[in-house]
Amino acid sequence: MNDRAANGVQAPVVQLQALTKVYRKGAQEVRALDGIDLRIESPGMVAVVGPSGSGKSSLLHMIGAMDRPTSGEVVVAGRYLAALGDAELTGFRRKTVGFVFQSFNLIPNLTALENVMLPMEFNGVDKSERGRRALGLLDRMDLAARATHRPGELSGGEQQRVAIARALANDPPLVLADEPTGNLDSKTGQVIYELLEEIARERTVVVVTHAEPLAQRAKHVIHIQDGHLAP
Amino acid sequence: MTMLRIGARNLWRSKLRLVLVATLIGAPFFLLLVMQSIGDAVQRQTEALKQNVNNTLQLRARGSMGHVNMVGNEDILPQDALARVKRAEHVARVEPYLLAMTPTEGHNFAMIVGVDPKDTRRLESHGEAGNPKILFGRDLTDEDRGKRTAIVGQGVARWAGIKPEDVGRATLTLDLKRTHPVIFALDRPPVTLTIVGIYASGYVFGDMQLFMPIDTFRDVYGMTEGISWLYVRVDSAENLPAVERQLRAMLGDVADIISPTTVAEFQTTATAAVQRLANGGIGLSAALMVVVVFFVMLLVVRERAWEIGTLKALGASNSGIVAGFLTEAVLLCALGALTAAILFGLWGGPLAQLVFGLGVSPFLPSHYSTLANSLSLSPQFSAATLGILIGACLFAALAGSAWGIRQIVRLSPMEAIRHE
């Protein structure tokens, strides 16, 4: 993969320099991120913790090219995101990043299998390969038997496991999880976290979480407050 | 392809909503079909009038009725008028007639008409009525040319004592020396004609006519040349004034040109008014469709903003997401159109009549108040109707979704996900 440097030297999968994001709420200006410098090596799990409104999710969105920064530099898997146009950013998200959302965000009128196949369809993977890989991922999540079920027919934990399978569909080097256990009970949350830990053995997983005990199990923990990285 | 499939599937998310939306979109489609059927019916009516009735000019010798034995009205058109008229631009057909009169009972008389067998049997003073219905026997044919055969109206048959069962054998003798206060004698021998058919015109004077081949008429009345009347059919009513101008320039010094006013009046009043109203109705229906689709798609985009954001996050292109939403909008419109077409097939006729009566008739001149009764307002599904439905579907889907599409394209994945 292009994010891994030759000769055994690990290139950072994420590199942020002086990253700033300012939102406008009417006349008010909100500095969600204020001059963040950050370097994340691959593989492993990185937890981002901080109080509500501290800028955790904004940080995740900037790394995942879900939004453009106001200023600063974002380099992910060797690509300077500021230099990419909208269509290239779409391609970047498709190939480089897998997202896991707090509310699962599965497409309600597609089955679990179809939800997992979806990113591969966008990526041009042929149909039989899509089906084979999606079924394999669901099996890894212990959900093969639920492949033909729609999200409404699955429990919260099952939906989040489908979402994790979907995030892995195109085998991205980076998985971004925004409060993945936030809508789950603690026991189910524990299972999901363990799954993410397992995934983090082969790629970088950045998890935004409120749950400090879970965060402490990560390889690195990043504290963020008022848009600044806390020491 | 995936997004098109998702768009098509989205249609079935809520069946109740689908029924509601299809009905809402179907209503303006239904109105559009009704207005189109009214416009079409009026158009058909106008076309029929243009083709059959009112695009005809009548030429007679100047200041004369052109009846060869009518006191003070015996002047007829010169024979070369026929060839000159035929040369005029936009003239579709020219039909020459020769006319005379013969006394019947008391002070009454019958009209004697010489006509080419392939031309229209026009009835005097109801020239537009065209071929009367043959009740008994047969009509004149090409084989009757030069022969002493004729058809008569049922009034003439009654006067002459011709019974239906005798048609084909019965004869009628014209005495050209008989006079009448308005008929002068012609120094010609009497002639006996075989009556091959009896017709009915629907009115008394129309039934008091006799038609014989025009060359037989020339022989009987000794009119080697000349024409009583020339009926000039113009290729379309629009060209009527132009042809009239040409003919006036060509024959104005020898001919009176009688131009029908009804077509001009019909076109400038009833047809134009109805067409305007129908077009207005179609425009209103289209606008309503767009408004309904606009609100439906606005709701859909707002409701599924997080889905749009998720799809963007997963790597779906804007064009793919837009295609999915457009598929849904087009299918919604198609369902609305289908609903409207079914309703139109079931109740379109009476409703078109009602809409015409309430929404169109009040805007027409009073003498067209009965127009609705003569229009064929039954629902008709033609290729044009299908084309209109498909066109309206696409137009409403595209125009109604424009704002939603703008939102889809404009929002970043994060904004879309947070939009809920």
Beta-strand level of the residues of chain A, as a percent range?
25-35%
How far apart are the first and last residues' alpha carbons of chain A, in Å?
32 Å
Report the uncertain regions of chain A: 1-8
| Largest β sheet strand count, sense and barrel closure of chain B | 10 strands, mixed
Task: Give a brief description.
The complex is a heterodimer of chains A (231) and B (420). Chain A has 231 residues and is of the alpha/beta class.
Topology:
The complex is a heterodimer of chains A (231) and B (420).
Chain A: E1 14-25, E2 28-40, E3 44-49, H1 56-63, E4 71-76, E5 79-80, H2 86-96, E6 97-100, H3 112-122, H4 127-140, H5 156-167, E7 174-178, H6 186-199, E8 204-209, H7 212-215, E9 220-225, E10 228-230
Parallel strand pairs in A: 3-8, 3-9, 6-7, 7-8
Antiparallel strand pairs in A: 1-2, 1-4, 4-5, 9-10
Helix pairs in contact in A: 3-4, 3-5, 4-5, 5-6
Chain B: H1 2-10, H2 15-52, E1 56-61, H3 80-86, E2 91-103, E3 109-115, E4 133-137, E5 149-153, H4 154-160, E6 171-174, E7 191-200, E8 209-213, H5 214-221, E9 229-234, H6 240-251, E10 255-258, H7 262-303, H8 305-314, H9 318-360, H10 371-374, H11 383-410, H12 413-418
